[in-house]
Amino acid sequence: MELNRYHYYMLGLFLLFFGLELRMIDSVVLTPEATKFLAERTGHPVATASDAVAAITGVQTNLPPKTVRPPDWLGYAMLSAGSVLVLYSLALPKPGG
After folding, report:
1. Which of 74, 87, 63, 76 is nearest to 27 (CA)?
2. What is the pTM assigned to this prediction?
3. Which contacts qualify for 27-30: CB closer than 8 Å, 24 or more apart?
4. CB 3.0-4.6 Å disulfide test: which of 9, 37, 66, 71 passes with 30?
5. Which residues are paired to 28 by β-bridges?
6. At 74, phi and psi to the nearest 5?
7. In a domain? residue 97
C-alpha cells in the first residue's frame, strides 16, 4: 500500500495528540490485568510466584498495579515528529491530481 498525503496527515495528527497527552500526564497506572500480562511477558519473579501460589492454594493473588512514568523527552519527540509529518503532508501533491 502506498502512503499518500492523507495517511501522512493522519499519522502526524495522531503523533501530535499522543505527544500532547504525554506532556500532560505524569504517570499511568495500569489495570491489574495489564499488570499481570506485562509481568508474565517479561518473566517477572512475582508473576511466577503468584502463579505457583494460585496453583497450590487455588486462590488468585493480586499483583500491585504497575505505574509507568514516561520520560519528558518522549512527549517532545512525539510532538516534533507529528508536526514534521503534518507539514510534510501539506507539501505533498493531492492524490489523483
Report:
1. 74
2. 0.73
3. 27/67, 27/68, 27/69, 28/67, 28/68, 28/69, 28/70, 29/65, 29/66, 29/67, 29/68, 30/65, 30/66, 30/67, 30/68
4. 66
5. 68
6. -65, -40
7. no
Residues 62 and 74 in one domain: no
Q: Residues 61, 34: one domain?
A: yes
Q: Which domain holds residue 87?
A: 1-25+70-92
Amino acid at 67: T
DSSP conformational letter for 58: S
Domain count, the chain: 2
- Please name the amino acid found at residue 58: G
Q: What is the pLDDT of residues 27-77, one digit of tens each?
A: 999 998 888 888 888 877 766 555 555 555 555 667 788 899 999 999 999
